[in-house]
Amino acid sequence: MRLDAISDERVQAFKGGLSDRRPKTLNNVLTVLSNVLRVAVEWKRIDRLPCPIRLVKVQKPEMEFYETPDVERLVE
Which of 21, 23, 49, 51 could bridge 8 with an S-S bond, Cβ 3.0-4.6 Å? Predict the structure, then answer.
């Protein structure tokens, strides 16, 4: 697709096509797209960013911590 053909609608459709991926993976892809568009503006291939690239929310994983007796037992 040509850089000047990218629009909000196409980015949303692209996101929808990746809806089976995990949010972190989707954000990685969107970050690359955003960087490509910013470099295209810097290199004067396009005049401005065609649309904002918004990342999806990612839930932070819940961390489990061991109690001191458990840690000592595991170390042994």
Answer: 51
**Per-residue tokens: 3:** 């850089």
Residue 52 token pair? 């904002």
Q: Given 3-state DSSP classes, what are the helix, strand and coil percentages for the chain, each rounded to the nearest 5?
A: 55, 0, 45
Q: Tell me which residue range forms the domain holding 26.
A: 3-58
Query: pTM of the prediction?
Result: 0.72
List pLDDT tens digits, range 5-37: 899 999 999 999 998 999 999 999 999 999 999
Is residue 75 assigned to a domain? no
Distance CA 3, CA 29 (A): 16
Residues 25, 22: Cα–Cα separation, whole Å: 5
Query: Which residues have a Cβ under 8 Å from the Cβ of 59 and sit 6 or more positions away?
Result: 23
